[in-house]
Amino acid sequence: MSDRTPADQFFDAAIGLLQRVRDEEADAVTAAGALLADTVAAGGRLFAFGAGHSSLAAQDVVYRAGGLALMNLLAVPGAVGVDVMPATLGSALERVDGLAAAVLDSSPIRAGDALVIVSLSGRNALPVEMAMNARALGIKVIGVTSVAYATRTSSRHTSGTYLKDHCDVVLDSKIAVGDAELTLDTVPAPFAPASTVVTSALMQAVMATAASALADRGIEPPLLRSGNVDGGHDWNARVFDQYADRIFYRR
């Protein structure tokens, strides 16, 4: 009988997925980082969007110590995390046709900007239309999704397409359909999701790649420092002033 605990099994599963995305998505991470660096160098702005739990990875790169100061959250009221009551309303909003267009039209995003869209399944109307409409506006789109869903589920968008079909770069998180890594005979349903761990790691890998790519071009990456270290607030104030026209989470 194995003495590996469920915690051991989960860590092993998460580590295995991280190794897969490191090895199998290396070219896509490089391309995504280069796309963000190109956008910054050209004077564009950076945005991230995710609905429900997918929003956690998007939020993790906004106003983040060690992160790019220019990354802004493109928020959809009621669909950011599980802060809406009831929480099931957020899931319902992901299936509403036309919502993405309204959000884009009322946001500061514009042609020449870049948008990272995080959606595990990539099947709902909101992320699909967000990508479609953004590209129609001249915005570059990076999709972070599990490509497996496109082969194991049906699209909920009228076009029958998925997020992955409307992106300039696709990052495949390799997460299995259902987002649960463990099973036990004594537990009636699969459990222990790893999508947040893997997707957040992919996002940070892209941010690191973008920062390095900018430095390679002789451009100082607009990075933030922790406000909990000496000099951090002064450093960030300088960055905020320098890039005030491209940072929207301070307004």
TrEMBL record:
Gene3D superfamilies: Glucose-6-phosphate isomerase like protein, domain 1. It comes from the Bacteria. InterPro entries: SIS_dom, SIS_dom_sf, SIS_GmhA/DiaA_subfam, UPF0309. Residues 36-220 form the SIS domain. Pfam families: SIS_2. SUPFAM superfamilies: SIS domain. Belongs to the UPF0309 family. This is UPF0309 protein GCM10023336_48960.
